Amino acid sequence: MLIALLTDFGLKDGFVGTVKGVIKSINPAVDIIDISHDIDSFDILEGALILRASYRYFPKYTIFTVVVDPGVGTDRYSIIVKTGNYIFVAPDNGILSLVLQEEKVDKVIKIENENFLLPKDNNTFHGRDIFAPVSAYISRGVPIEKFGSSLTSLKKIDFPEPQYEKGIIEGQIIKFDKFGNAITNIENISGFKEGFVSDKKIEGIINSFLEGEKGKLYLIKGSFGYYELVTPLASAKDIFSLKKGDKVIIKT
After folding, report:
1. Res. 120 pLDDT band, cuts 50 70 90
2. Cα(87)–Cα(151) distance, rounded to whole angstroms?
3. CATH classification at residue 27
4. Last residue of a domain, which of 102, 124, 150?
5. Predicted TM-score (pTM) of this structure
6. Where are the beta strands (DSSP E) in the chain?
């Protein structure tokens, strides 16, 4: 059995190691893989994007422990979602929205049974006290129905959909990767006449990061499944002063 971790914890404060320690204390035999712990703090959309981009490359029945949780300690639910292929353990805050557009949901459980949770004197680290032990017990074969009652609905993320109208696509930047490439919310472009992000010209669509002229802005279909704004061997974010939410206009 495999547990995959995706969080915004970073590596400075020991949170990731603590979560792994809890999991291993309950199931020493389970394997743990880190997807990322560098999600921008509190950025549920970025977590949802990275989860959708990565989950399908894991073996069937992987347990995904997903903790980007600005609402920790509030009345939002902690949940288990079982699909035909995987299990997801996460806060009910929309972070599973994108992956569940692709995976058929078999069952959703609200985590309630305190017999499977750590005793706690605070309400600020559910990654340690709820999501880690629940994931570990699932990996030991505990049926998910043992953890609580069924839910029939889940929170959904407010995803900014692009607008397609009369030969014009209007999208926006939704994330930057480590290289300064700007991921947009545009999945499909049929033809390209010209494009702009704010007042900056997009030269065209390229097929590799070495195409095009240095210092100019291009689009490329990236590994997240969306078009990205890039410049050869440099950070498009820094060179063109790009920001999340900047409008991207494509004329087709």
Report:
1. confident
2. 15
3. 3.40.50.10790
4. 150
5. 0.94
6. 2-7, 31-36, 63-67, 78-83, 87-91, 105-111, 148-150, 163-165, 168-176, 182-184, 194-197, 200-205, 217-221, 227-230, 247-251
